[in-house]
Amino acid sequence: MFFGNYSHSLDDKGRLVIPRKMRDELGLKIFIMKGFDGALSIFKEESFEKLVEELESLSFNKKENRDYLRIKLASVMDLDVDKMGRVQLPQALLAKYHIGKDVVVLGAGDHIEVWDEKKYQEYISSIENDFETIAERLAGE
Question: Are the beta carbons of 76 and 90 closer than 8 angstroms?
Answer without folding.
Answer: no
